[in-house]
Amino acid sequence: MTAPMNTLDFTTHTVPLEGVAKISAKSVNLWYGEKQALYNINLEVAKNQVTALIGPSGCGKSTFLRTLNRMNDTIPSCRVQGDIRLDGDDIYAPDLDVVHLRARVGMVFQKPNPFPKSIFDNVAYGPRLHGLAESKDHLEHIVKASLERAGLWKEVSDRLPQPGTGLSGGQQQRLCIARAIAVSPEVILMDEPCSALDPIATAKIEELIDELRENFTIAIVTHSMQQAARVSQRTAFFHLGVLVENGPTEGVFTNPVDKRTQDYVTGRFG
Ligand SMILES: Nc1ncnc2c1ncn2[C@@H]1O[C@H](COP(=O)(O)OP(=O)(O)OP(=O)(O)O)[C@@H](O)[C@H]1O
């Protein structure tokens, strides 16, 4: 039976993970002030895979992404309930060091946001903050390796002292990915990382995402169903703050179980 109009349907259809869960979210509810934005979300993020979070504008996908490294803590009206574990560690435990958590779970934002510093210092910032480099040589090695992994080294190796803000939009986004990688995170959260980029820069980032999953676990919010289909192994479809469907990407797109997912993937709304 379908839910009557204007009544939230809380049903979630989940195809269980085949691999290992890196992050496990259970019964997550979230409010901004009086307004509830997430309802009883249960979602596992598979290790060394890309999980795409999709859904119409305002459905809560960015909000959910931000619960995974407690970025919502910076919003005073925001209240989170539930249980979120990273390799079994409760990330909302009262004694948890949030700075350490955000080193384990890095983030790349919609608009490339390099610091107003040199290319080198952008990447060196995190390792310096967390005391990860034993010497100047070691720091240079980390910066080079991070830029290489982000596919940017060849383009910037001769201009490391120049400002990061002087790079093209696509290069800036790869610089932000290098900055995230430099602290050796376990998970990288990406919130519409290509929405400010042209198709060529987007294609480069998508290729990079595919390479990165070998070493990292990735969760990506995207408005583009094509992008979700190209880069992810699992997809979670959100609607009105509810996780409607969650499973292998191909199944969600070609054989969705729920009518709300069917309507979204066939372009009937959103
Ligand atoms: N800082 C905030 N304060 C109050 N309400 C917020 C805040 N951020 C988001 N919301 C509300 O929470 C709901 C979910 O928003 P969210 O940004 O997570 O959705 P989204 O699916 O990522 O949307 P979009 O695709 O447009 O970015 C929306 O109703 C939004 O208005």
What's the helix and strand layout?
Layout: E1 13-14, E2 21-32, E3 35-46, E4 50-54, H1 61-67, E5 78-86, E6 89-90, H2 98-104, E7 105-108, H3 119-129, H4 136-149, H5 153-156, H6 169-181, E8 187-191, H7 199-212, E9 217-221, H8 225-231, E10 234-239, E11 242-248, H9 249-254, H10 259-265
Bound molecules: adenosine-5'-triphosphate (ATP).
Adenosine-5'-triphosphate (ATP) binds next to helix 1.
Q: What structural class is derived from the secondary structure elements?
A: alpha/beta
**Which range does the strand content fall in?**
25-35%
Query: What is the number of strand segments?
Result: 11
Distance between the termini: 23 Å
The main sheet orders its strands as 1-11-10-4-9-8-7
Mean pLDDT equals: 94
CATH superfamily: P-loop containing nucleotide triphosphate hydrolases
Distinct ligands, ions and cofactors found in the model: adenosine-5'-triphosphate
Q: What is the percent of helical residues?
A: 25-40%
> Which spans of ≥5 residues are poorly predicted at pLDDT below 50?
none
**Number of domains in the coordinates?**
1
* H-E string: EEEEHEEHEHHHHEHEHEEHH
The shape is globular
Largest sheet: 7 strands, mixed
What is the CATH third-level topology name?
Rossmann fold
Specify Rg, calculated over alpha carbons.
19 Å
CATH architecture type: 3-Layer(aba) Sandwich
The tally of helices reads 10
